[in-house]
Design goal:
homodimer, Uridine Diphospho-n-acetylenolpyruvylglucosamine Reductase, domain 2, Uridine Diphospho-n-acetylenolpyruvylglucosamine Reductase, domain 3, 4 domains, 15 helices, globular
Chain lengths: 452, 452
């Protein structure tokens, strides 16, 4: 079957010059290859036919959503890739309140999901920074975000996925059942596999009742180490925060400049911004009080935020990335370490800035050990930047590994972290991943050269 | 290397007549084969050597813990199996409070883990009925239990596992990191794989701070349908119960007779026993009040239990199985359906008892859709029992499948549910499982004939 027969609508089939560079690069990975075609599928059946077409024509396949990935996972590198763009598969298929299950196509945006369920009194906990990412991409990378400390990551909210396999077969993995001891967990194998094992065509998500109350608390500390000590104290005392963000003074100033607004606390070198949620106001307030008591000697200041302050503080936190993009050239990492090594990791990044001559600032999800280390390019020419960056990253990921961490908490390995990943992971485990990939995709058709 | 060299201590190496029948059967699956040897390993290194020995001698391998499994997964069926019994690998290796991680060997009992962490103010949420099962077996079956409705199953508390692969290689899967988008999730693939992909030799478990307060509520309903309606109401209102058990009058009478004590409510055909936990007394009490308000019109009676009543009610619930074993011959199933199909499933089991002439009673974890249907043998001779049981199970699992359910919530497929499992699962998914098994264990050495 010709690709024009599969995708009858010419608007949904891009060939040759009609394929923009946006399909060939991402924010950090430049264009290195062209692609065979871009097909904007509308249905699972079209995806299935496209996979069969790729088999017949011996093409490689890249599945793609909104293209907000930052690890190069959706960037073509061979030249013979068929990009299956699922951003037009954007129906919210149904919402079953009895099982609290939302069924969506992979092109639905995270922001659309959040709005849809919140307007009905429900709550989809995963909260990655990029609200314009698609849920398909979120599942393919096991996206994390702010609320992982209490609620977990995307993985924890996927009840089932419909997948088109590299054989062209379609299968649903997972179910609406809450427990299972019925065979291998293939659903979790697919989640986070970055499009290398199957193409996700439908997703059944678990949602929760929306908590009725929330309260944010801002804490200022004289150092990152004191701040992370504070974080461990909070976690050890059953406070169960929804979000527990840490940022250096050096990161939030970008947001302050960008928004022309100031964080409610101005003293200190590092901040912790925490939200508590719950269905009883008394619980939320009493936990905020416990935090105050626990941390009044460790922190410079502890401030329970009123509604306006809460909005402002979270706006500033959310705008760190946008502000950085406005004012500077940089690369943002997403390494993760066990929560008790967070301070040590951040402190090591500071050593690296002296050693390699690249300024480094950090913010991150302190409650779950995920650091966003930001390497500031500061006008370095391309050659110097590439050399310094690579030397710094080699040191940095060596430290991450030494601390028992991983190169990617939520963005994926893609191609940008592949060489580091291969060094950090145990060869037996890497070999096992390759065996699994080869068993499911023996022709290496799906997103070849990514992740593995 | 000879097996006597690997296991130098003759007490830990059982051969020929020294191998008791306990190694060759379980509560439901009779002895059908002998075994090559039983080796009680003490270390990962011994397990590794035993696997290499099995490779050299071309033996099959069954990993085994306390032998409390009820699906035949640890029963030899070929005659040339080497049983690696890990019940002597029973060290609690360490407890790291900073990351709330307990490291244990696979032979540690669930009850030992619960006691160890609770005495330190922590909490291991999974709570399968058999407290004398080993944690290794819990991981191998993804055991569930009472508290899954709030806290999830074993899978959700495994940070990492050390595994000896069928190649004899040792690898750690997972990590102490809370987030990961760093490669395939092989840890979850191994969890619940019933010893068919690797032998678990060490486990790092996540624990939580022990909730400070709890309150149980007992509700009586005039029918199972009203009771499951009540359950759905509780779940939809953000009550977040720790446990939400449902039992028919017909099951709890066995416990009452066995313990010679009565449930605090005596009216009604079905009961819901719920526990709430939390760190603020006010929250726990107010949720109990909300449950009362929500359900006073649906239930015959709602009783917030005092400490003595709570102990008694849970004792009666916990003793259902023991009481059944004391008074009758039966087979207990562990099917699971989406929570909104729970009533329909139970009601269907009642139809089956008329159709097939086997009495059926039910209890189960209503909050997570997991039903323990109990088939009462009631003196049927072996031939009649086998025929009637099989006819009933064929109908029952067909219904489970039609409702979107699964044959096993927490016990595993083993051999006892294999033929039903194969019919219920989509052939593409089954084939995918076989591909994965073949990729990791191409010689089909680990627990062959089980699950797949």
């Amino acid at each position: 079957m010709s690709i024009e027969t599969i995708i009858g609508d010419p608007v949904r089939l891009l060939l040759g010059d009609k394929i923009s560079d946006a399909y060939k690069q991402d924010i950090y990975v430049p264009k290195v290859a062209d692609v065979h075609a871009v097909a904007l599928a509308k249905t699972t059946d079209e995806v299935r036919k496209l996979v069969n077409y790729a088999i017949e024509q011996d093409l490689k396949i890249i599945a793609r959503g909104a293209g907000t990935g930052v690890a190069g996972a959706q960037v073509p590198i061979h030249g013979n890739e068929l990009i299956i763009d699922v951003s037009q598969m954007k129906q919210i298929v149904g919402f079953d309140e009895a099982t609290m299950t939302l069924t969506v196509e992979p092109g639905v945006l995270l922001s659309e999901i959040q709005e849809y369920v919140e307007s009905r009194g429900y709550f989809y906990p995963p909260d990655p920074g990029s609200k314009h990412s698609t849920i398909g991409g979120n599942v393919a990378t096991n996206a994390g975000g702010m609320r992982a400390v209490k609620y977990g990551t995307t993985r924890d909210y996927v009840r089932a996925i419909e997948v088109v396999l590299p054989t062209g077969e379609t299968v649903e993995l997972g179910s609406l059942n809450i427990k299972s001891s019925s065979g291998y967990d293939l659903k979790n194998l697919l989640i986070g596999s970055e499009g290398t094992l199957g193409i996700i065509t439908q997703i059944k998500l678990k949602v929760l009742p929306l908590p009725k109350y929330k309260q944010s608390v801002l804490l200022a500390f004289d150092s990152v180490t004191s701040a992370t000590d504070g974080v461990l104290t909070i976690l050890a005392n059953g406070i169960d925060p929804t979000a527990l963000e840490l940022f250096e003074r050096g990161t939030i100033v970008y947001s302050e400049t960008f928004t022309k607004q100031l964080l409610p606390l101005q003293t200190g070198e590092a901040y912790v911004l925490m939200t508590l949620d719950g269905n009883e106001m008394a619980t939320v307030t009493s936990r905020a009080d416990v935090v105050k008591q626990l941390l009044q000697s460790k922190a410079i200041a502890v401030l329970a935020l009123d509604v306006e302050q809460e909005k402002l503080a979270w706006k500033l936190r959310d705008h760190i990335l946008v502000a950085l993009m406005e004012f500077t050239e940089f690369e943002m990492l997403d390494e993760v370490v066990p929560i008790n090594r967070f301070a040590e990791m951040i402190s090591y990044t500071k050593e690296l800035q002296g050693k390699h001559g690249i300024s480094v600032i950090n913010f991150g999800h302190a409650g779950d050990g995920n650091i966003h280390t930001v390497l500031m390019r500061e006008g370095l020419d391309q050659e110097t930047w590439i050399a310094k960056r690579e030397a710094l990253l080699t040191d940095l990921y060596e430290k991450v590994a030494a601390l028992g961490g991983l190169p990617s908490a939520e963005h994926g390995i893609g191609i940008i972290k592949k060489s580091y990943f291969e060094k950090m992971i145990h060869p037996v485990e890497l070999n096992l991943m390759r065996k699994v990939k080869n068993a499911i995709d023996p022709d290496n058709r799906l997103n070849p050269g990514k992740l593995l």
